Amino acid sequence: MKISILGGGGTRTPLLLKGLLSLEEELELEELSFMDMDEQRLLLVKRVLDEIAKEGKGKLRLTYTQDIRESIREASFVICAIRVGGERLRIIDERVPLRFGVFGQETTGPGGFSMAVRTIPRVWEITNLLAEVNPKAWFINFTNPSGVVTQAILGYSSLKKVVGICDAPSSIHKVIAQFLNKKEEEVFTDYFGLNHFGWIKGVYVDGEDVLPSILELIKDLPDFERITRFPGEFSALIKMLPNPYLYYYYFKEEATKDLLRAERTRGEIVEEMNAKLFHSLREGSNPLSIYLDYIKEREASFMPGRLKGIALAEGEGYIDVALKVIKGLAKGDAEVAIVNTRNLTAISGLEEDDVVEVPTLFRKDFLRPLSAGKIPAESLAMLKQLKEYERLLIEGVATSSYSTLLHALTLNPWVPSYHIAKKILDAFIEEEQEYFPHPG
């Protein structure tokens, strides 16, 4: 089997390789092709990858290329993890909304909007090429904003063998299992929503829903609010555990004030860490040690505190989901993972072709989202608004329509008014004009 990794110079790529090595014999892996347009970055990450590869059986070939056709040809799976515009434009995504008192974040809100406008056309180019060169391959999308990008692929390309992956739900599952002192496979999290916009409405152990007990425990647990920023009583109020990104929706004012007080955005922190990593890889003699130090620093910067006894490594959620998906689709053993896929009938009240984030069953070359059952009316109303925003955003990109993009941004839950939406959009056009249509 051959697997292609687009964006192979990314900082999570070594973690992905480590995970794939654990399935080297089971999947009969023969080649991993790492493709990246940034040759220098790819060659520096190659130093780390070559060291990690020594842990394998020695039969797996690692190849490196800037030729996307070469990389995707004959691959069974194509993993897409690109960042159009790099960290520089991520920072602009975060900073522009703040000028107008609106929270900026790279995957949701106006920041995610801008990232989607830049990213979707490039992903369409890739998927159109894949449909021409290797239409039988499965396309696994890591590229953010994952849900919107996956929706754009399934709605506007001929590819149907597409899965979108985000680490948030699987990371929540891991934390819950550790909190309950259970193995991950002993716990089922009844999750529903969209990417970075979902809830856990049940946690099942031995057939019993233990979520009510969890909500009661965390209500008076100081560490819970310190780590998640959600007051324990809030989860008890909605009777669900919210995805951490829902903090930006339920607590917009607090989230915006926190970021306005901060000296640097998340993108600026990551940019500095990445620059330090690549400088050290260029100058240092022990690439694997340098990389592991980087991962520890990034992990600590993202989650400075933890619940006692609970640990989660940087990137661990992404890799575990990817391995489950690949193993299930390739081998046929039943696997269940929370991914972004077509709704079908999983969430009643949304359209069949809406991309949702739900537990999904994987078998050989087959997937089927599991039914979410009855969900709260308030959640469905929020999902419908965000889904309409996503549809208009993708339509605006497809038609290069300023007015449609403005309509979409006006519907974004983070944006308080039409006038603010217009100011933000016009500012993005000024800062990132090569990616945006102009008015008129």
Automatic annotation (TrEMBL):
Task: State the active site.
Answer: 167, 245
Its BP terms in the Gene Ontology are: carbohydrate metabolic process
Q: Which GO terms describe its molecular function?
A: hydrolase activity, hydrolyzing O-glycosyl compounds; metal ion binding; oxidoreductase activity, acting on the CH-OH group of donors, NAD or NADP as acceptor
Q: Does the keyword Ribosomal protein apply?
A: no
Site (Increases basicity of active site Tyr) residue list: 106
Binding annotation for Mn(2+) = 166, 196
Q: Residues in domain Glycosyl hydrolase family 4 C-terminal?
A: 191-415
Cofactor binding description:
Binds 1 NAD(+) per subunit.
Q: Required co-factor?
A: NAD(+)
Q: Name the source's superkingdom.
A: Bacteria
Q: Which InterPro entries match?
A: GlycHydrolase_4_CS, Glyco_hydro_4, Glyco_hydro_4_C, Lactate_DH/Glyco_Ohase_4_C, NAD(P)-bd_dom_sf
Q: Which positions does UniProt annotate for substrate binding? A: 90, 144
Q: Does the keyword Metal-binding apply?
A: yes
Q: Name one Pfam family in it.
A: Glyco_hydro_4
Keywords assigned by UniProt? Cobalt, Glycosidase, Hydrolase, Iron, Manganese, Metal-binding, NAD, Nickel
Family per similarity comment: Belongs to the glycosyl hydrolase 4 family.
Q: What is this protein called?
A: 6-phospho-beta-glucosidase
Q: Which organism is it from?
A: Candidatus Hakubella thermalkaliphila
